[in-house]
Design goal:
Layout lengths: L5 H13 L6 H9 L5 H12 L2 H7 L3 H13 L18 H38 L3 H8 L3 H10 L7 H13 L3
Helix pairs in contact: 1-3, 2-3, 6-9, 7-8
């Protein structure tokens, strides 16, 4: 699993929230000003990240939205969007900070998954030694690739298995008789 960059992440968010498979600024601006107001914060940050602020401004007809766009643009002009911690020193409105918190959570998801896999590996090793079950027995019983199971259990290569498979191994070892 790769870490998302801001532009790719915000593009997915815009498509998801708009319910359409488009990144047309005209269409998204129309939706943000009407039926889908949750789209606004992400649309503003997308236009800043992609350098399309002036283009977005040409599609807006609410003066307060234009003012907010200019204000946020001024506050984020030297921001590196791909570093999630770079937004910590900004004093953005809470709605915009919430978007950055969502991005930060998505960015850190990989670390969280790896930490979970590491905890499952530690418990699996403990149970495997206690019960004397070989890597081959585990891979056969769970119908998993023997090389990946061996690399995971013997060499602690946690990237070789998904979190779900690591959990499956741990549950198998927990329920296996001694």
């Amino acid at each position: 699993m790769r870490r998302p960059n801001f532009q790719g992440w915000i593009s997915r968010e815009l498509r998801y929230l708009s319910g359409e498979n488009t990144l047309s600024l005209r269409r998204l601006a129309f939706l943000a000003q009407g039926s889908t107001p949750r789209l606004w914060e992400r649309l503003v940050l997308y236009s800043i990240a992609t350098g399309q602020v002036e283009r977005l401004k040409s599609f807006l007809f609410h003066e307060e939205m234009i003012g907010e766009l200019e204000s946020i643009t001024g506050q984020t002009e030297k921001l590196d969007f791909d570093l999630p911690d770079s937004t910590l020193n900004l004093s953005l409105p809470p709605r915009f900070e919430k978007v950055f918190l969502s991005y930060r959570a998505s960015y850190q998801k990989i670390d969280t998954r790896n930490e979970s896999k590491k905890l499952r590996w530690e418990k699996s090793i403990e149970l495997q030694k206690k019960k004397g079950i070989s890597n081959t027995q585990i891979s056969r019983a769970l119908n998993l690739d023997a090389g990946n199971v061996n690399a995971y259990l013997k060499h602690a290569e946690i990237d070789r298995l998904t979190l779900e498979k690591a959990t499956l191994i741990m549950k198998y070892l927990h329920s296996a008789p001694i």
